[in-house]
Amino acid sequence: MGKFFENLNGVLIAGLVLAILIVVFPNSGFQNSVGSTDLWLGVFQWLHVFFGITWIGLLYYFNFVQIPTMPTVPAELKPGVTKYIAPKALFYFRWGAVFTVVTGLILAYLYGEENALLLNDPSNRLIGIGMWLALIMAFNVWFIIWPNQKKALGLVEADDATKAKSARTAMIFSRLNTLLSIPMLLAMTNMH
């Protein structure tokens, strides 16, 4: 049993298989919760939540754990975080943002709320606000946080002053995303 849980890919595949079994199992309640004709709606809603948890979970990891802890990490141990942990976490962070936004846009279309971004319909204004916040956050991830993190972590060539400035910029925009995530999650969880 322990060997199985040492294999992340195996665990993820098993979790996916269990989710599929719940979907197809008679009387599981899944068909009642999404409607028998809305299988794709249920699948994209599930994917949206999965990717959103990945994205926001890593955002909170960076802001609640890594950023506050790094100043207390001994200098000889910091490369373990900056060379191995942070780049891998930032990979899932970036792609979690993309897939959260894409599945969210698909959901808006499937729900008939593709015009929610216009914010002109009171019945879907809240989800439109959430969508705008998520788009701003995803922009920050890809065009501000990630380029600055590449410099700060030494993934691209930069002098020490540039690394320090880039680390601060990435942190500030990461904190901005943390701030925006709170109302964005309110909008996301009150969709329907």
UniProtKB/TrEMBL annotation:
Upper lineage: Bacteria, Pseudomonadati, Pseudomonadota, Alphaproteobacteria, Sphingomonadales
Name of the protein: Urate hydroxylase PuuD
Organism this protein belongs to: Sphingomonas daechungensis
Stretches that traverse the bilayer: 7-27, 39-62, 91-111, 126-145
Keywords: Membrane, Transmembrane, Transmembrane helix
Record bears the keyword Transport: no
InterPro entries in the record: Urate_ox_N
Residue stretches making up the Urate oxidase N-terminal domain: 127-192
Pfam families: Urate_ox_N
Keyword Glycoprotein: no
